[in-house]
Amino acid sequence: xxxxxxxxxxxxxxxxxxxxxxxxxxxxxxxxxxxxxxxxxxxxxxxxxxxxxxxxxxxxxxxxxxxxxxxxxxxxxxxxxx
Length: 82
What we know:
Layout: H1 13-42, H2 52-61, H3 64-74
């Protein structure tokens, strides 16, 4: 229950996922707008081209801790119990 007797909207997993997705899209769009598409794509090859795949995977793996935090906060159990 919330402060005034209403259930908080972020208790719904769909709202939490939508907010996380929107923030990721907005951050990446700001990077593309700032650097341009070519500069944004080239940023994955920094500092050397051989770690391009690792930089792309890092973009996706940064979301995982938030999923674990959700399961501990809202489901009441550590994510390792799943």
